[in-house]
Amino acid sequence: MKSFGNKNYRIHFLRTPFNLGLKVAFTTCLFLSLTNFLLGQITVGAEAGYRYLPLLKDKRVAVVVNPTSKIGETHLLTYLAANEVKLQKIFALEHGIYGKEDAGAKVKDGVDPISGLPVISLYGSGKEPNANDLEDVDIIVFDIQDVGARFYTYISSLHYIMLACAKTNTELIVLDRPNPNGHIIDGPVLDLKHKSFVGMHPVPVLHGLTIGEYGLMINGEGWLGDQLVAPITVIPCGNYKVGQHYSLPVPPSPNLPNDKSILLYPHLCFFEGTNVSVGRGTTFPFQVFGAPHFKGYNFSFTPEPMFGAKSPKFKGRKCYGVDLRNYPASDLKGLNLNWLLEAYQSKSGNFFNNFFVKLAGVDYLQKAIEEGKSAKEISAMWNEDVARFKEMSSKYHLYQRKSNHGLKSGND
């Protein structure tokens, strides 16, 4: 039995479908799913094999997976193989199928050495599967953990996969997973003139949807264009209300290693468009922020090359700033701008770079910060847009919401 090298990607994959190891994996997954459901614990879409395995029978199947595509300790590939699903290929998103690639680094095509399946990159020279990629595919199974932020690229990849499915009439099954930031709907709604791979749709920074609900919204709002509609089926989570706490069992990407980083990410990611570090190149990325030129701060950190951050901002230079590792991030009720405004007061040289507007999705956020507006004044600028989005997106809800999402932004 072999294991993938990344500790977060323990896929035990044996080539013979009827091998004892696969039978054990199948039995374990079935027992785990039933136990979790009966105990009232959250179950992810991948655990509901009884819902989607019949749809895969006698079909040629491609999968979109990464280290998060797991049922307990068993990877989805192992589970599908144990159920004699005819696997054709793997599509790889940002960070690759092993979760080893840096943010923004191109992912290469190749062959998975464990399963022997071809790996087609959707984060390299192209983002959309082409007709040749889908020629021998009847169904794509998508099982990727999202974090509920507009600039996290997995929802953009979902868009392009749906587009390819719509063009070729290839079925798509999305195995849904909880949104760890589902308790917040807030932030500027993207202006389509700033459309990019870190923001493709007119949604707030924090959209409050699961990735399955988001796919339904892409279809329902006609965002694929040319009246295209993807043949999509969402396998829902069980025992889940959007907004309830959900601790991710596997890091969704190299620089979101824990719950704290995942909860802080939507609020700190704006710093990626500035001359401020968010701690890439440390053991606590997206849990701090700072820069060498900051004055009056006792806390410091020094970014160094490491897994997931081969060339971090301010490499080898001591940065002074704010440590948020003990911040009660679960108490965040809206998009927090206070940290961004605090850092702007310590600016040196050009604070913003061209990436900031892509992340913000609007022109007015940078302008408002430069004009010295308060966090409360700035968040008021998008409240009406967020209210309209909430009404529109509610059509695609698959789950109850734990509480009503108010428009309070957390910047009061």
From TrEMBL:
| Gene Ontology molecular function terms on file | peptidoglycan beta-N-acetylmuramidase activity
The highest taxon in the source lineage is Bacteria
Q: Using the record's annotation, list all stretches that form the Peptidoglycan beta-N-acetylmuramidase NamZ C-terminal domain.
A: 263-399
Q: Which InterPro entries match?
A: NamZ, NamZ_C, NamZ_N
- Domain Peptidoglycan beta-N-acetylmuramidase NamZ N-terminal per the UniProt entry, residue ranges: 61-259
Q: According to its UniProt record, what is one Pfam family this protein matches?
A: NamZ_C
* Official protein name in the record: DUF1343 domain-containing protein
Can you name the source organism?
Answer: Luteibaculum oceani
